[in-house]
Amino acid sequence: MLFVVTFDDRPDAAAVRQREMAAHLDYLRLHGDRIKVAGSLRESPECTPVGACWIVEAADADTVHALVQADPFHRHGLRAGYRVLHWSKAFDAPAVV
Fold first, then answer.
1. Residue 77: what are its φ and ψ, rounded to 5°?
2. In 64, 65, 71, 76, which residue has its Cα 20 to 30 A from 58's Cα atom?
3. How do residues 10-64 score in pLDDT, each as one tens digit?
4. Residue 68 to residue 82: CA distance in whole angstroms
């Protein structure tokens, strides 16, 4: 199954993002078989991230929640909250770059 995870970041946690970025990127690489796409969300390209989005392939939502909760950004308090949604692709699109 495919899932979309949207994250809201705590606005006062920029230091957490900076401190945990390397560990977070390592975590994403380690779980790249399931976390297919990941990236920050911003009001505009030059702005500080306000959250993030992942596309995850997993057997069930519990697996997705476990992935989120083990992420260094989540464990160290960057995330104010997150939402896991089932995703139904409308059509096969080329890979996202």
1. 90, 15
2. 76
3. 999 999 999 999 999 999 999 999 999 999 999 999 999 999 999 999 999 999 9
4. 9
Number of Cβ atoms within 10 Å of the Cβ of 83: 10
pTM: 0.91
| 82 vs 5: CA distance, rounded Å | 7
CA–CA dist 38, 3 (Å, integer): 12
Query: pLDDT tens digits for 55-94?
Result: 999 999 999 999 999 999 999 999 999 999 999 888 877 7
Reference 11, options 55, 43, 58; nearest CA is 43
Kindly state the helix (H) or strand (E) to which residue 39 belongs, with its residue range. strand 35-41
